[in-house]
Amino acid sequence: MGKAVINAVDSAGLDIVPVSFGSEEESGNTVRVCGKEITVQGSSKRESTPASLFDEYPNLIVVDYTVPAAVNDNAKLYCKVGVPFVMGTTGGDRDRLYKTVEDSKVYAVISPQMGKQVMESHQASKVDTSRTAKAVISCFKKLGVSFDMDQIQLIGDPKLQREMVGVPDEHSSGHACHMYHLTSRDET
Length: 188
Hints:
Rossmann fold, alpha/beta, 2 domains, 188 residues, three-stranded mixed beta sheet
């Protein structure tokens, strides 16, 4: 999804800041997207990089497609530096995320559904993907949408089920909820 955003930004004639965050092992590597070299910054530069970029690019907006475990730390960093951002990753502690943004007064768009997404919520004892989700993915593929089964987000944690899906606590031990979201290139 990050590459799709870079392509859209480039097509719109906007500037792409040639920096991305990654692990310390990836630090210094470059990725080529839209003919642009993007340098990966490791975790040791997490604090200094956004501040220096914001000085160089005062109209900077970060578009973040990360892993769910990094959502809150990344948002906290953007708010600390004062950089507006779009959080396109689901997961993390959403209440804490909203509070971090609200307390900082930094502009942010927090979207749990950007692009294509399949989530299913079942009781914690269900550990595999449902036939229903597999059938929907099959339909997506027939529509020409590239989607792998490992992209399905399985939600088994009762706290996340309550926060992300709205499953009442009394039903977390036996329920099924499937959510499918597909956004076309023209945002319809």
